[in-house]
Design a protein that fits this description.
With 329 residues, the protein is mainly alpha-helical. The protein folds into 2 domains: 150 residues, no CATH class; 125 residues, Endonuclease III, domain 1 (Orthogonal Bundle), CATH 1.10.340. Helix 4 crosses helix 10 and helix 11 crosses helix 14. The protein is globular, with a radius of gyration of 20 Å.
C-alpha cells in the first residue's frame, strides 16, 4: 500500500504540534494562550506523542518498576498486569500491589478490604473496563479474581518470553484472563521499557483499531490495511520519519533523550491522529474535553506538588534504557 505525501505531511504536522504543546507548556513555560493555535488541540485532550511522557506510565515506573532488574521478570510482569487492569494513578497512591511471592489467601483478603475502601473513581476513565464474570459482580473484586488466575502463569510466561517472537508472546498474553489485545500490548510495552524482552519498542508493536484507522487516512485508496500491511506501514513511517513527514523544526521540540520516535510511539500517534481528524472534520469528538485555562490553573497546581515533577517544574522523563537491541519480532 502506498502512502500519499500530502497526507504524510498532515500527519507530521499533527505529531509536531502535539509535541510542541508539551514543549511550550513545560520547557518554555508559556501561558495557555500560547500553547497552540490549533482549535482542535486547544479544545480536546490528546495523549502525548511520547509514551515516555505519559503520566500514568511515569508514575508506574518511578514508584513501582524502578527498583527491579533483569532478574525480576515475574515481578515486573505481575505488577504490570495489575497496574494495567486499573490504570489509575490515584488508586495506586492508596494501595500497594502485593509481591507475587506473597500471594496467599490472607493477602488476597487484605487486598479486597483495601480496594473496597478506595473512593471512586477506582478505574481510569480513559480505559476500557473488562466485563464482570457474572451479573452484578463488583469489578474491584474481579481484579483480585483475575490476579489469582494470572499468578500461576508467571513461570510459563517468563520462560516463553525469552524464546517466542513478539507476535507469538502477545498472542499468548491475550489468552490470560483480563488481557485482551490492547492490555497485552501495554504490558509488553512495560516489559520492553524495562529491557526484559529480547526486542524493544523499535522492533515490535501491535497496531490496534485506532492505528489502523489512522493509517487509512494516509494510504492512497483510503482503505483500512490488514494487520500485516499495517506493521509494514508503521515500520516505514518509523524509518522515514525525519526524511518524509516530520517537519524540520521537529528537532526544536523533541525529547533530547529520544532523538527518534519509536515504532510503538508512531503506532500510538496514528491512533491519536485519527481522533484528531475525526474531531476536526466534524465527526465524534474525543472522549475528554480540554480546557487550557482550567488545566493551567488547577492541574498545574497539583503537578507543582507532584514528586514526578522536579524543582524547576519540568516533568520527569523515563530514561532511555533501549540503547541496544537484537530484533526478534
Amino acid at each position: 500500500m502506498k502512502m500519499l505525501k500530502r497526507e504524510l505531511l498532515r500527519f507530521g504536522k499533527f505529531v509536531y504540534e502535539r509535541q510542541a504543546v508539551w514543549h511550550r507548556r513545560f520547557i518554555e513555560k508559556l501561558p495557555p494562550s500560547e500553547w497552540t493555535r490549533d482549535p482542535v488541540l486547544r479544545r480536546y485532550k490528546f495523549t502525548n506523542v511520547y509514551r515516555e511522557l505519559d503520566r500514568g506510565t511515569i508514575y508506574f515506573y518511578c514508584n513501582m518498576l524502578y527498583k527491579y532488574t533483569r532478574n525480576d521478570f515475574k515481578e515486573v510482569l505481575w505488577q504490570s498486569f495489575v497496574y494495567r487492569l486499573v490504570n489509575r494513578v490515584s488508586t495506586f497512591q492508596r494501595i500497594v500491589i502485593p509481591h507475587h511471592d506473597n500471594w496467599t489467601k490472607l493477602v488476597q483478603n487484605n487486598l479486597k478490604r483495601e480496594i473496597s475502601e478506595v473512593p471512586d473513581p477506582f478505574f481510569t476513565s480513559a480505559h476500557q473496563n473488562f466485563p464482570p464474570r457474572y451479573v452484578g459482580q463488583d469489578l474491584r473484586m474481579r481484579v483480585v479474581e483475575m490476579m489469582d488466575s494470572f499468578h500461576p502463569t508467571l513461570d510459563r510466561l517468563r520462560d516463553d518470553a525469552g524464546i517466542l517472537t513478539g507476535n507469538k508472546f502477545h498472542k499468548l498474553l491475550t489468552t490470560c484472563d483480563g488481557l485482551g489485545p490492547c492490555r497485552s500490548t501495554e504490558v509488553m510495552k512495560d516489559l520492553m521499557m524495562m529491557c526484559l524482552l529480547p526486542y524493544g519498542p523499535d522492533d515490535w508493536t501491535y497496531p490496534g483499531p485506532g492505528a489502523l484507522a489512522g493509517l487509512s487516512l494516509l494510504v492512497r485508496d483510503g482503505t483500512r490495511p490488514s494487520k500485516t500491511e499495517a506493521k509494514e506501514l508503521i515500520q516505514e513511517l518509523t524509518e522515514d520519519q525525519l526524511t518524509k513527514w516530520l517537519p524540520e523544526k521537529w528537532d526544536d521540540v523533541r525529547l533530547k533523550e529520544y532523538p527518534l520516535l519509536s515504532l510503538c510511539n508512531v503506532e500510538h500517534a496514528l491512533c491519536e491522529y485519527f481522533k484528531y481528524r475525526r474531531a476536526r472534520d466534524g465527526g465524534s469528538a474525543p472522549r475528554v474535553g480540554y480546557d487550557a485555562v482550567k488545566i493551567a490553573t488547577v492541574r498545574d497546581q497539583e503537578m507543582r506538588m507532584d514528586p514526578l515533577v522536579n524543582a524547576d517544574y519540568t516533568p520527569y522523563v523515563i530514561p532511555n534504557h533501549n540503547h541496544y537491541r537484537r530484533s526478534k519480532s
